[in-house]
Design goal:
The complex is a heterodimer.
Chain A (H helix, E strand, L loop, with lengths): L3 E10 L2 E11 L4 E5 L6 H8 L7 E6 L2 E2 L4 H7 E4 L11 H11 L4 H14 L15 H13 L5 E5 L7 H18 L2 E6 L2 H7 L2 E6 L2 E7 H7 L3 E6 L3 H7 L5 E7 L2 E6 L2 H14 L6 E5 L3 H9 L3 H20 L1
Parallel strand pairs in A: 3-8, 3-9, 6-7, 7-8
Antiparallel strand pairs in A: 1-2, 1-4, 4-5, 9-10, 11-13, 11-14, 12-13
Helix pairs in contact in A: 3-4, 4-5
Chain B lengths: L1 H16 L1 H22 L12 H23 L1 H6 L2 H6 L5 H29 L7 H28 L6 H15 L14 H6 L1 H14 L6 H24 L4
Classes of the chains: A alpha/beta, B mainly alpha.
């Protein structure tokens, strides 16, 4: 039985289609990433799968339960860490955990034991009686993850788990999430707009843009699908290089001012040959770089835009809007 | 029931922890009690009340304190909405009715505690306890006021996006409810046009109930007060639960 199965899931708000007929299946035990710029529909998708929003049309099951007709069963099967903090700052870490445990009707003795296990796991045991308002951003995030695990969910939703955290904390969290998946076999579905996060953590990634899934697969396959490694050669005579490289393993050449960008599979093996050929033909090389494609390149390939372009235009405006809306 | 208890527990814990809120919301009622009580005690004679004006308004001010605390407790759901905590509660496999009832009882409990603290103060300025039964009657009416107006606050909060509207509600709903009730003046001496407004105000019956408990005399029969207050508590809880069910975040 797949952990999550979505079929043509759609959500529109007053005519604006936030999620437009997406379908995907997540196998049990996977770490699955929804990658895309802000406003792409990631959070809306999560909200529907976690029964917080009713889909406009389409169906989905989580742990085998329909998200509309079996709301309570879905809620019992999932843990969720929201994009925005959802802790009670006036309570201590322990009390936040205890509140959650009681809401999920976990019996007293089991509850106390699990809380102390989980707080130890996320390294907050020694601060469990401090009010949450004295916690740093990273500690709050860890506490939320621990809380999301308290009722032993089959599926854990992480909505932008490392947003706004410093690089060190982010690294810790990544290790931590990977370990959870590894040791407890929990299916994890996370949304992110950080390419490296998706790359490092996820078994499979769905790239989502403007409410639709534009590519889905393992990170390796996605990267391979756009034509292999990226080789950039700077030279006084880029035109000549483009003319020379006609081998079948070259999947694409772009000429720029003073350099060429060549895509090919297994660049590492072909580079020596290319350099020898260029040298023999008397074409100078100023510099040469080989880069493995990133998910950024994949996004660029499928949308014609970089995710950073999207961010630059949309992010600040979104943030401002969001903040203003919450005040 | 354990879910209701969980939500209740959180509310009470938060209340007991916020010392500044407890002290802060004692300020205005105490001020009213002292200034109006001592200021008017010698000039105002209320027919049928031998104990003086001070003893007349103490129940009214206690009711006022319960009213303000409970409305505020209900409206606090907006904070939960804004700080994200409400999501944590709503995504759990529990019904919204349980959450709403827990919240209502929590708010009512804090409001009653607030009223009790005020009663203790009142002991020092002339309140003479009329026995344990009277005291329990007063607490019962305080609880009904608490439930009614916490549920009212939740109903308002379910429809409000942020705290901007709070001032509006305070000035145009809560103050009139307090002002029109018989908290500060006897109903019998009101002009004919004002009387119906006062009798339409649920708080009037709460005040009269507390007054009956504390001083043994009231202008409205205590059973009438009880029936009206209990009816209001049930009605407001139903309305609050209905609106809370449709809350969106």
């Amino acid at each position: 039985m797949p952990a999550i199965h979505a079929n043509n899931l759609t959500k529109s708000f007053d005519g604006f289609v936030a999620v437009d007929g997406i379908s995907f299946t997540i196998e049990s035990g996977e770490i699955f990433g929804l990658l895309g710029p802000n406003g792409a529909g990631k959070t809306t998708t999560i909200s529907m799968l976690s029964t917080m929003l009713k889909p406009t049309s389409g169906t989905a099951t989580v742990n085998g339960h329909d998200i509309v007709t079996k709301e309570d069963d879905v809620r019992k099967s999932i843990g969720i860490v929201f994009q925005d903090q959802s802790l009670d700052e006036e309570l201590t870490a322990y009390e936040n955990m205890d509140f959650h445990g009681r809401l999920y009707r976990i019996a007293g003795e089991v509850r106390r034991q699990r809380i102390s296990e989980l707080l130890t796991l996320v390294g907050l045991d020694d601060r469990k009686d401090d009010l949450v308002k004295t916690y740093s951003g990273g500690m709050r995030r860890r506490l939320e993850i621990a809380r999301g695990l308290l009722h032993e969910p089959k599926v854990l939703f992480l909505d932008e788990p490392t947003l706004g955290l410093d690089p060190q904390t982010r690294n810790h969290l990544w290790d931590y999430i990977a370990r959870l998946n590894d040791e407890k076999g929990i299916t994890i579905i996370l949304t992110t707009h950080y390419m490296e996060e998706a790359d490092r953590l996820c078994d499979r990634v769905a790239i989502i843009d403007r409410g639709t899934i534009i590519a889905l697969g393992t990170t390796e396959n996605l990267k391979a699908s756009i034509g292999g490694d990226v080789v950039t050669i700077a030279s006084p005579d880029p035109g000549a290089i483009a003319g020379l490289l006609t081998a079948p393993w070259v999947s694409g050449i772009e000429r720029h001012d003073g350099s060429v960008t060549i895509r090919m599979q297994d660049a590492d093996r072909h580079i020596p040959g290319i350099v020898t050929d260029l040298h023999r033909s008397g074409i100078g090389i100023t510099s040469l770089s080989v880069r493995k494609p990133t998910l950024e390149d994949v996004f660029l390939h499928y949308t014609g835009r970089t995710i950073r372009d999207e961010e630059a235009s949309g992010k600040e405006a979104m943030r401002m809007f969001h903040r203003a809306g919450r005040r | 029931m354990d879910i209701v208890y969980t939500i209740w527990l959180r509310n009470v814990k938060r209340y007991l922890r916020s010392k500044s809120r407890i002290v802060g919301s004692l300020g205005m009622p105490l001020f009213f009690m002292l200034v109006l009580g001592f200021g008017l005690n010698s000039v105002v004679r209320i027919p049928g009340m031998e104990d003086g004006y001070m003893n007349f308004i103490i129940p009214g001010i206690v009711a006022m304190s319960v009213l303000f605390t409970s409305v505020f407790s209900g409206i606090q759901i907006i904070w939960d909405k804004q700080f994200g905590f409400l999501k944590e509660t709503l995504v759990a496999p529990v019904s919204r009715l349980e959450i709403m009832i827990g919240q209502t009882l929590g708010g009512a409990t804090t409001a009653v505690i607030q009223g009790l603290i005020l009663m203790v103060f009142a002991l020092f300025i002339g309140l003479e306890p009329a026995g344990i039964a009277g005291f329990l009657i007063a607490v019962g009416f305080m609880a009904l006021i608490g439930v009614t107006f916490t549920a009212f606050g939740i109903a308002i909060a379910s429809r409000m996006e942020d705290m901007h509207g709070f001032q509006l509600i305070m000035n145009f709903v809560i103050f009139p409810i307090f002002g029109l009730s018989g908290a500060l003046f006897p109903i019998d001496s009101l002009p004919a046009w004002l009387r119906p407004l006062t009798l339409a105000d649920p708080l009037t019956y709460g005040v009269e109930g507390i007054r009956y408990g504390l001083s043994g005399t009231a202008q409205i029969h205590p059973l009438v007060s009880l029936a009206v207050m209990a009816g209001c508590a049930v009605l407001m809880t139903v309305v609050g639960a209905y609106l809370f069910r449709k809350i969106s975040i």
